[in-house]
Amino acid sequence: MEQQPDVPVVPEKAPRNRKKPTKPKPEGKQAGPSNAGANPQISAKQRGHPTRDSPEVRVSKTLSWILRHGAKSEGLTMRPDGCVKVTDLLANPKLSTLNLEALQEIVKADTKQRYDLKFDDGIWWIKANQGHSIKTVKLELAPILAVSDIPSGVAVHGTTKEAWELICKQGLSKMKRNHIHLAQGVAGDNSVRSGMRKASPVLIFIDVQRAIDAGLKFFLSDNGVVLSEGNERGILETQFFSRVETSNGIPITGWEGSTLTEKLDDLKLS
User: Where does the source fall among the domains of life (predicted)?
Assistant: First the structure.
């Protein structure tokens, strides 16, 4: 019988395990204790741009935001007049770099006089003088009963060209704030401390006396800003615009002083 050649035996391949082995976590990467009980609204993140704004500017923006808008979300107790305890404020993670002395310097150096810092009954208190969106805040404001109650006799609102396209149709709105803000002059005037942004290409001058005679209410804040709640919808209507011009003093067509007054009188009579 013919001898068969030897055939090599090929062992069967073991089934491939497609599950990747779990790599042990390196030391120091273990999860820390849970923060489930912490308030997710409160963090150390400050307001302002992280690279464009200086640390001082970011602290100032954060302070302004907390006192005008964010006290409740930051867990701070605020009195009806807008005051919060300085000790509570400085305990906020966003203001961890501040102490009382630094806060005093911020208030003193603020050219717009945004803040009121006072020592009352053994406690330091601070508030924003105006600009609140917190509805429970009722500031002690001086009522303006006639245009003569405004020291400069002027009330003007600065805005952007884009915003003006809407304002010229519907009027000035207080939006989410408690008041519409008006300055006693344009940016750069020595009498203007607050209420006007430096970069405001459109200036809307308000006929305050005309608005008062129509039943609208105006007030003067502690730092000289003219405030109004507007009408029942929170609007200061265009009929109370005395003139509108650019920051260079160039009248905007159709919104010049005497022409505008005549146009509004015609509309009132029609």
Answer: Eukaryota
Helix axes of 100-109 and 55-65: crossing angle, nearest 10 degrees: 90
User: Among 155, 143, 146, 213, which Cα is nearest to 180's?
Assistant: 155
Contact yes or no for 159/200 (Cβ under 8 A): yes
CA distance 211 to 167: 17
Q: Which domain holds residue 171?
A: 142-269
CB 233 within 8 A of CB 183: no
For residue range 149-172, what is the model confidence (pLDDT) as tens digits? 999 999 999 999 999 999 999 999
When mean pLDDT is compared over 171-175, 220-224, 262-266, the highest value belongs to: 171-175
Question: DSSP letters along 20-58, please?
Answer: PPPPPPPTT-S-----TTS-TT--SPPSS-TTTS-HHHH
Whether pTM > 0.70 for this model: the answer is no
Which of 128, 160, 178 is a domain's end point? Answer: 128
Question: Which CATH number fits the domain that encloses residue 100?
Answer: 1.10.10.970
**What is the rounded CA–CA span in Å between residue 88 and residue 60?**
17
Out of 54-63, 97-106, 190-199, the most confident range is 97-106
Average pLDDT over residues 5-21: 52
The DSSP bridge partners found for residue 14 are none
SS3 260: helix
pLDDT for residue 178 is more than 80: yes
